[in-house]
Design brief:
- Helix 5 packs antiparallel against helix 6.
- The mean pLDDT is about 90.
- The chain has an eight-stranded mixed β-sheet, sandwiched between helices.
- About 45% of the residues lie in helices and about 20% in strands.
- It is α/β, with parallel strands linked by helices.
Length: about 280
């Protein structure tokens, strides 16, 4: 029996990359040409689809590029493998946007540390492939970036197993604990670099991307990413010359802020970000 298409209307162009082209071919100059969604780790298609349909409603003429995230991307996949898997997304960016645009054409929407990892993978490989910084864009950072404490990392890595029966969930959870224990030993005893730190640093690296403005959307109730770690990252971004807005929600969980108030505040934040970014006066 054939498996159901997880994202109707989108075309899978890579192992974790999907593309949507709008029916309306004429572009709206006030809207982004391309929306790039870097979803959180092992996000369920039903949850991702809410953002896809949200952007289809908000910017009907925009092409949408989805880059999904898996635990393997951070845990063990090599840089060459990650580069090969992200290549279809690079091709879309290169074919959709001008090589040296005078105004932003891309809205990059990043979720959690998993999506942040994929975003950095995209930005760095664009720089190494094209020889230029990633095109000028606006950035939404939803529930990220954190620093990945043991407890919060366990909640993030084990979340995909919550839907499994208990006889599968228990060994899967045990495997996560073992992986995190090995990680703790490597980082704290053997002094290996924490793999989350290059992600945090990359998001504030002006050498790999041109950015007009960014907004952090986060909550104190997030069990997977500490709100103070988000604000610390935002403060570092400001100190480096990035234009930053902070939008803290009350009571919403990880990557679930869009559920507050029916999403009205959430999507208004995105609209305001793009409107201000399109002026092209805040480039960092």
């Amino acid at each position: 029996m054939a498996s159901r298409d997880p994202f109707p209307g989108m075309t899978q162009i890579g192992p974790s990359v999907y593309s949507y082209r709008p029916v309306q071919e004429q572009r709206d100059p006030s809207a982004p040409n391309l929306v790039v969604l870097c979803s959180w780790m092992a996000a369920h298609p039903t949850h991702i689809t809410k953002y896809i349909t949200g952007y289809q409603s908000l910017f009907p003429t925009a092409q949408i590029l989805l880059v999904r995230s898996e635990a393997a991307d951070i845990v063990y996949r090599s840089e060459s493998t990650l580069r090969r898997r992200i290549q279809p997304a690079l091709d879309v960016v290169r074919s959709t946007c001008a090589k040296d645009p005078s105004r932003p054409e891309i809205l990059l929407h990043v979720f959690s540390n998993g999506g942040s990892h994929q975003a950095i993978n995209l930005l760095r490989n664009y720089r190494s492939t094209v020889g230029q910084r990633f095109p000028i864009h606006a950035k939404v950072l939803d529930s990220c970036p954190g620093r990945g404490s043991f407890k919060r990392s366990y909640l993030a890595l084990s979340a995909p197993f919550d839907r499994q029966p208990i006889y599968l969930r228990l060994p899967s959870s045990l495997a996560v604990v073992i992986i995190l224990c090995i990680h703790w030993i490597l980082v704290n005893l053997l002094r290996f670099e924490n793999p989350i730190e290059p992600i945090r640093q990359g998001l504030n690296d002006k050498q790999i991307a041109r950015e007009t403005k960014r907004v952090y959307i986060y909550s104190e109730a997030d069990l997977m990413v500490n709100w103070q770690e988000v604000e610390d990252h935002a403060a570092d971004a400001r100190s480096r010359g990035f234009a930053v807005d902070l939008e803290r929600f009350e009571g919403s969980g990880h990557a679930a802020h869009v559920r507050v108030g029916g999403g009205e505040r959430y999507w208004q934040i995105v609209k305001d970000l793009w409107r201000e970014s399109a002026k092209g006066i805040h480039e960092a």
